Amino acid sequence: MATEQRLSPAERSDLVAYLDGELSEAESRAIATKLTRSVTARSEVEALTRTWELLDALPRAKASEDFTQRTLTEVGRLSVPGEAIAGVASAAFRHAGRMLAWSLASAALFGLGLALARWAWPDPTARLARDLPIAEHLDEYLDVRSIEYLDGLDRIPEFNGDPD
Predict the structure, then answer these.
(1) Residue 61: exposed, middle, or buried by beta-carbon count in 10 A (0-12, 13-18, 19+)?
(2) CA distance 68 to 73
(3) DSSP-assigned letters across all residues of 63-100
(4) Is-contact 23 14, C-beta < 8 A?
(5) Residues contacting 34, CB < 8 A, separation 6+
(6) Residue extents of the structural domains in the chain
(7) In whole angstroms, what is the distance from residue 133 CA to residue 50 CA?
């Protein structure tokens, strides 16, 4: 009597090998027993068989000799471990070189900015040094009330330095 028992995922993965006769005798017997007892399992096998027949009916694409040669050359190149290491090292050196160039450019721009700031920005200590005599006598200058007072002092011989 047939049942509606489906194939398990493991049996389904072995189904192609079963159809090609590549399974062991015990595995083949287990799948054959399930196929004789389950209508659902038989329909899965029939669908798979029809799919393979349709795939066999499709035209097969041929690879060009150039494609084969390029593929074999690429596989040969990738199989040499020294070249893979050299490629990684080359990429690392390029990255390090780029980082060094950016660092040098950043340092140069920083130096240029610092030089421009020192040249264009006024130095407050230079102004203080230039105005030091004024700062030393500031209290005396604050006591002077007007220019006329200084002119009057200039007319007095004791203050202007003339002994006459």
Answers:
(1) exposed
(2) 9
(3) --HHHHHHHHHHHHHHH-HHHHHHHHHHHHHHHHHHHH
(4) yes
(5) 5, 7, 11, 41
(6) 9-57, 65-120, 124-155
(7) 110
pLDDT digits (tens, 9 = 90+) for 58-100: 888 777 778 888 888 887 776 666 666 777 788 899 999 999 9
Q: For residues 141 and 135, give the distance between their C-alpha atoms in angstroms, rounded to a whole number.
A: 9
Residues linked to residue 38 through DSSP beta bridges, in sequence order? 3
pLDDT tens digits, 32-54: 888 888 888 888 888 888 887 88
pTM of the model: 0.35
- For 90, the 3-state DSSP assignment is helix
What b-and-e string marks burial along 129-150, b requiring 16 or more CB atoms within 10 Å of the CB?
A: eeeeeeeeeeeeeeeeeeeeee
Name the residue among 46, 147, 128, 27 with its Cα closest to residue 11: 27
Averaged pLDDT, 138-152: 81
pLDDT at 164 over 60: no
Helix (H, G, I), strand (E, B) or coil at 55: helix
SS3 category, 7: coil
